[in-house]
Amino acid sequence: MALLTIHNVKKAYKNEEQILKGISLKVYKGEVVVILGSSGCGKSTLLRCINGLESIQEGEILLHDEVISNRKKDMHKIRQKIGMVFQNYDLFPNLTVMKNILLGPVKAQKKDTAEVMAQAEKLLARVGLLDKKDAYPRELSGGQKQRVAIVRALCMNPEILLFDEVTASLDPEMVREVLDVVMDLAKEGRTMLMVTHQLEFARAVADRIVFIDGGVVLEDDNPEEFFTHPKTERAKRFLEAFKFEKRITYAEAI
C-alpha cells in the first residue's frame, strides 16, 4: 500500500486557469520522489495541497488509506505526519534556534520538553549547528536557516517530508550544505517528496522522477531513464534547456 496517494487532483484559483488538471501519483514508504517541471507548472501548488495549505476542487489525497484533502477541523493533526520545508525557512525571528524547533513538538504534540531538546541537539549536531542552538535567525546564514528548518520538521517525526525548492533562495555556496543534509536523509530511508530545479541533485537522490507540465504528469520514471531517455518531446526540451543553461553558466565563469 502506498504511503501517499494522489488521485486525479484538480486545483484552480478563483477566476484563474486550472493549475492542476488531474494529477495522480503514489509515494511509497522509504521512497524519494522528485517533482520536476518548468516554473508555473503546478509543482509547489501540489505540495501545498498535500499539506492542506490549499484546497482542491476535485480528486482525493490519501495518507495511507485515510483521505486528508480538504480537511478543516483536524488538519493540524494531519500536518504533524507531513513535514514541510519551505524555500523561505519560516523561522520565527523573535525565537532562538532551539525555541523554534521546540515549538511544534512541545505545543502541538504535547511532548516532553527535555525529550525533544535531546532529539533537537542530536539533529543540530548532525547538521553542524549545535553551537547555534541559542542564536536567533538573524544571526544565521541562509544555508544555516534552512538546515534549522529541516531539523524543526524532523523533530515532529513526520511520516513523509515535503521539500519545496529548499535551495531556491540560497547563494550558490550555501546550496551544497543543504543538499548534503537532504541526501543523508534519503540514505537513511526517509520518505520524501520534493520539488527542485537542481537537476543533478535530483538525479542523484531520487528513486523516481515525476515530470509535470501544464498541470498534468507527463512522465513518471526512474532517474536514469528520465535523464537519458525521456519519453515525451516536452521533457526532452526541458532537459535540453537545462544543458544549455549549464553551458552558459560555465562560459560566464571562465
Description:
- With 254 residues, the chain is an alpha/beta fold.
- It has helices spanning 43-50, 75-79, 97-108, 113-126, 142-154, 172-187, 199-205, 223-228, 233-253, and strands at 4-12, 18-27, 32-36, 58-63, 66-67, 82-85, 160-164, 192-195, 208-213, 216-221.
- It has a 6-stranded mixed β-sheet, with helices on both faces. The protein has a 4-stranded antiparallel β-sheet with strand order 2-1-4-5, with helices on one face.
- Strand 1 and strand 2 (18-27) form a beta hairpin.
- The longest helix is centred in the C-terminal third of the chain and has 21 residues, at 233-253.
- The N and C termini lie far apart (50 Å).
- Residues 247-254 have low confidence and may be disordered.
Number of strands: 10
Query: Mind summarizing the main beta sheet?
Result: 6 strands, mixed
SSE order, as H and E?
Answer: EEEHEEHEHHHEHEHEEHH
Helix content: 40-55%
| Tally of separate helices | 9
Strand line-up across the major sheet:
6-7-8-3-9-10
**Unreliable sequence segments:** 247-254
Structural class: alpha/beta
Quote the average pLDDT. Answer: 90
Using the alpha-carbon principal axes, give the shape.
Answer: globular
Radius of gyration, in Å, reads 19 Å
Strand percentage lies at: 15-25%
Distance between the termini: 50 Å
